């Protein structure tokens, strides 16, 4: 069973359907107790950072998410669900995140040659062999929709990069914590393979 956090801003149904297509049941919930007892947890997200963090706090979900990640069980953040793991974001002002990964969320720089948001398919490069990318070739394309990107303080957590005017972090990995800036649920076959890899994960040490 894969538990998906519902805070009224995630692309819940598309993520749930994608997980079901790779053979696993899902539970969409905003109940802190159900999040605390999850076997695997996904934090999806679309929309603005400020409103998303406010909703997590209003629903008393921030601490259960932190506690789940501390438990060592498999966790996946998607898009805004990646960005909220960081200390802060400059989207719409300066706002505190969950503070799980040191670093910040910043906007793509103004460049007449680049459209913001960064939207569509982009090629990724694996910077460390994350379990999510097992069986997926370097140079694969995934689907992105975002105006802001994460800048980890510690480069060792960067698992995947893409290029949009300059290289940026497209996914992170630290122990049981995995998170992608791109949308695997919208990335066709390779996205399904990535989600299947997540579904197959054991907790570290198992």
Automatic annotation (TrEMBL):
- Identify this protein by name: Imidazole glycerol phosphate synthase subunit HisH
SUPFAM superfamilies the UniProt entry points to: Class I glutamine amidotransferase-like (SSF52317)
Per the record, the GO terms for biological process are:
L-histidine biosynthetic process
Oligomeric and partner information: Heterodimer of HisH and HisF.
GO cellular component terms, alphabetically, are:
cytoplasm
Could you tell me the keywords of this UniProt record?
A: Amino-acid biosynthesis, Cytoplasm, Glutamine amidotransferase, Glycosyltransferase, Histidine biosynthesis, Hydrolase, Lyase, Transferase
Q: Which InterPro entries match?
A: Class_I_gatase-like (IPR029062), GATASE (IPR017926), Imidazole-glycPsynth_HisH (IPR010139)
Q: Name one GO molecular function term.
A: imidazoleglycerol-phosphate synthase activity
- Where does the Glutamine amidotransferase domain start and stop, copy by copy? 5-199
- Catalytic positions are 79, 183, 185
